[in-house]
From TrEMBL:
One of its GO terms (biological process) is sulfur compound metabolic process. It comes from Bugula neritina (Brown bryozoan). GO terms for molecular function: N-acetylglucosamine 6-O-sulfotransferase activity. It comes from the Eukaryota. This is Sulfotransferase domain-containing protein. InterPro entries: Gal/GlcNAc/GalNAc_ST (IPR051135), P-loop_NTPase (IPR027417).
Amino acid sequence: MAMFIARCKAKQLTAIKSILVRMKSVERAIEKYQQSDLRVLVLLRDPRGIMRSRMAIKDGYNKKYRNEDEALRIHSEMLCKAMAEDAQIAKEIQKNHPNPIVVVHYEDIANYTKTAASYIYRRDSVATAYNWKKSLSFKQVRLIDEGCKDYYKYIGYEPVGSQQELSDPNNYHRTTLITLI
């Protein structure tokens, strides 16, 4: 870590994209380096999109979950418990340290700032955000929804109620949409 900090201090602006970092680690970094100009952007993503991505990996979740309903629901529940814990910690960090952390939904960036998201992600971010709607079956979505129901309430996602809702490209399955532009 010291090597990375030394390199970062030598630069005017440094950005690090890190996936699967738990908020406890972010909280410790903010506490330790609170005199620095550290800023953190936390992207929240719909767990159905995360699970769809994991299921698409050839040697990973695809084999494990394609027909194992209970395993899919259990893994979704574990994922959402971790995400809910991280979201709660992020809110605490925002309360105690308002400047260093910004929390935003990935789908909001995808929907409202396509140019910026395409630059960051180098691909069609809207398609990525909602790919799960086309590639997961209604049954798979319901299993993920069941495992993530508590997280959805906390973070503002809605379960999919029908095949028709799943097929509707204008239904974002969110209780609130935040306009960023």
